[in-house]
Specification:
The chain has 53 residues and is mainly β. 0% of the residues lie in helices and 45% in strands. The protein has a 4-stranded antiparallel sheet, with no helix packed on it. A hairpin with a 6-residue loop joins strand 3 and strand 4.
Amino acid sequence: MSNRNTLVSRHLTSDGVVVWTRCACGRLRMDLIPHGGARPLTAGPCPHTTGQG
């Protein structure tokens, strides 16, 4: 299985940028990249791709 993620959508919000990607296995991942350099938040990363972005 490839570790490549497919960009599904990217949205500018009042909190930052929300990025949705889909893993090669089909699982969705949501990343919030906040304005101002705060710590990013992630929901739904696959165990086989953790740490590989």
